[in-house]
């Protein structure tokens, strides 16, 4: 069975790292079919829409989507795209690689971020000239769905539930209760950590944690914190998983300072492509790509962000040679 | 003019570090009048209320309040107390001290956290069996008030405005616009950073930032992140400032593992007392206390959390001897 992969480069280095990841995928000869879609600042400037309906539909209809990055329009592109693929969880591994400068080289975490609600539900109002409100939504259904996924994901291990239920008692209380209840039903161990305490503790000793299950904004901020601990966003992949559908993207942005020069680090996107392979049940190929990236990080050419002087193409070829 | 200081020890090591800080204050012979109030888990167990009305009133009527920590009832104690003193800003310095183990020894930050609204406004509802909502409130008035304070606080320097206005467009958009407008009016430079990007960047290089102005929950989480970078909560003071009134507290909690042993580190509370002195215009005394703490940290006895074996009393006396 051939899979259709939507490929949305977006802006800036998205246009360099996505082709690199596609090259890696193509070198595996899996007969994947790539279909390009447009989104981002440039598209908005041209058409008035950062995410044209046909790109939304393409993501919704494809088996998986690979997305690069968008500039000023990032939120207008990525939030609807996550919705297009009906994604209920955002998987964000944050792992330090040997030989790559990291504040905390022992970091090896995976965030499972709720991906549909919380403050992202989008209900905001200007109540008066002086006041705006945002309605933060938490449902038992979304919390349970995330928890079911988490229980399967950790495969016999436990996970940490990170929340702020001491202040957001009803909403994060509902989240926490639902997640812990589902975990209990599956015999999965959980420990609870308040999100502020988590921020302190993960800096002091990231090895205290493995898998972290949390609401949407907590996952956004705390996974970016973990990115800081592993040395930056340059190597962080992510996956947005839906029932029939998924979207994979590097955590980094468009890097306007280096865009167009062909020197962007493609590895976060290549690792996102590895997550895509795993999602489509090409588990063996997924592991081969990951191992190839590790080998290149340990021995191969490096882009400038990792202290090397190789360009995007050289690093991409090095990965392909290791496959 | 003599000042009345409300003294609320709370639970756990609050009962050890607050007396230590009071000893330091008394040694200065300023004629401060200390009045004790009760709050916390033990009070709740006894009376059914974590924060008795008379303690609330005491804080509201005193010139300043020194608070230790509360256990399970922390939110029920500290959130109303912040309201009792009409506090619109929570000042949280996070600074690494020479000789104290820190992930990022070059960290020297001050968070000015909005202290009245955001997700802390407390409007939560269970809309159905499946759904809860929380109404996040942002007003121009509170944002401007914080910004006015920030402009004075930075005394000619600039500050960073940290927010998530790309997602919370109306609420954090209102916050950002109000803060930037007030700063512009005062000729104060600002730069804007998204809160997730801030979490990454502060780990990679905390010297990029100095003073950070942000909404309530952002300040909670990001200042705790900074606490992780400076080696933990043990040395972090904080101030909740109102127009006529203020409350000072260490950022740490009740430390149940060591409570009752007389070995808690009193320095976060002593530094909070120094902030109290400054607030009451005893600036010279405030600086003397800070300098004494620095000297003790560099040369003097240390509690176990800093790798020493001195007890609370020995460290407190060492500070007093340096005054
Ligand atoms: C661009 C923005 C809307 C997005 C988010 O907040 O989810 C980004 O920060 C991310 O984490 O992918
Ligand atoms: C105890 C809790 C309500 C409080 C807060 O969230 O403000 C604490 O974390 C703090 O930062 O002082």
Description of the structure:
2 copies of one chain form a homodimer. Chain A has 323 residues and is of the alpha/beta class. Chain A has 2 domains: 1-88 and 233-322, Isopropylmalate Dehydrogenase (3-Layer(aba) Sandwich); 103-230, Isopropylmalate Dehydrogenase, CATH 3.40.718.10. Helix content of chain A is 42%, strand content 24%. Chain A contains 11 helices and 12 strands. In chain A, β8, α6 (171-185) and β9 form a beta-alpha-beta unit. The longest helix of chain A is centred in the last third of the chain and has 17 residues, at 283-299. The interface between A and B is large, with 53 and 53 residues. The complex binds 3-isopropylmalic acid (2 copies). One 3-isopropylmalic acid sits between chains A (74-75, 78-79, 220) and B (166-167, 196).
Give me the count of strands of chain A: 12
* Count of separate DSSP helical elements of chain A: 11
How far apart the termini of chain A lie comes to 23 Å
Proportion of strand residues of chain A: 15-25%
Indicate the multimeric state: homodimer
Choose one word for the global shape of chain A.
globular
Give me the side-by-side strand order of the main sheet of chain A. Answer: 2-1-3-12-11-4-5-10-8-9
Give me the CATH fold name of the largest domain in chain A. Answer: Isopropylmalate Dehydrogenase
CATH class call of the largest domain in chain A: Alpha Beta
Query: Order of helices and strands of chain A, N to C?
Result: EHEHHEHEEEEHEHEHEHEEHHH
